[in-house]
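The records we work with from here on pair a chain with its fold. Taken together, the tokens spell out the fold as the letters spell out the chain. To see the layout at work, look at the sequence and tokens printed below.
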Amino acid sequence: MIVAINFDGACEPVNPGGVGTWGFIIRDLPGRSVPVYGVGIVEPLSVPMTNNVAEWVALGKALAFVDSNYRSVLKPASEHSLLISGDSKLVVEQLSGRWACNAANLRPLLARCRELLTSIGCPWSATWVKRDFNTAADSLTQAAYVGATGKPFPVREKKK
């Protein structure tokens, strides 16, 4: 079995200091089960809210769900794997160990995600995807913001 995670986090309407929201989608590949969706606001942490914090929380929530609901079916590890995708290059590269995690406020979030991956116990890979390929998780994050604030999700001009 292959289990796929798409995750996203946001800090709006300002970064840093906005409202942190997260969303994830988990599905068995090749689509044998109905996708599972998770959304929410980032609970107050001892660190300032930023996009990077929200992205890490989103991944942590998704991994905790997999650990609670899929761990028993993902073992033995040799037959199963976990595919992680997100539009945060920082999270994907730090999780994979290709980039150092220099921000002290992100280290505990990275450590928690790695603990969850160890608990899940199967091979995994993390891939950065452009936001255009993460629209379903992004829309969940936006819906969480609207639900938490009652305001429309801020629209920003695309960078050229």
About this structure: The first strand starts at residue 2 and ends at 12. The first helix runs from residue 51 to 69. DSSP finds five helices and five strands in the chain. Strands lie at 2-12, 19-29, 36-41, 81-86, 124-128.
